[in-house]
Amino acid sequence: MSTIDALMRSVPVIPVLVIDDVAHAAPIAEALVGGGLTALEVTLRTPAALDVIREMSKVEGAVVGAGTVLNPKDLDAALSAGAQYIVSPGLTDPLTDAAKRSGVPYLPGVANAADIMRGLDHGLDRFKFFPAEASGGLKALKALAAVFGAVRFCPTGGITEATAPDWLAHPSVLCVGGSWVVPAGTPDAQAIRRAAAAAAALR
Question: What keywords would UniProt list here (predicted)?
Fold first, then answer.
């Protein structure tokens, strides 16, 4: 994906993945892509995460990004592992400057008007609204969207299969991030593929 906007428009749900065992990487990616979810966010929350990105990147059709990227060091490590886009829970100047220099599609997290304004100062207008439910939910997002009309969001955090359609119905929301598609534990490829297909059909 050449831009973060194109990535956000490619799927209604970006699976947020926390994977401890690299052996699970390819089967999960294959199941997700098979179900119609091609943009995969591997969070840098486990020691295996970078190797998981490497393995998932080998799966045909998978567009693998790194999430929970906190600083330029994380960014460099993720890019070296083959990450095709970068997601951060927040918006800092050092990480944003490094991401812009690299040219990688970049989705920083925002939770309020000040975060968005700082992002706009950097020339950004696509953001992860995080943590979505804890930051006031859809009501808060609607209030922010009314002020920042050109901004588009990927709400993440506390969103479920049941609530995702409500978020996706708002015109400022291009996609949502969700962890429900791949639950914790030993992966069940058939169940993941079914969940991915249901999520892909939400748009």
Answer: Carbohydrate metabolism, Lyase, Schiff base
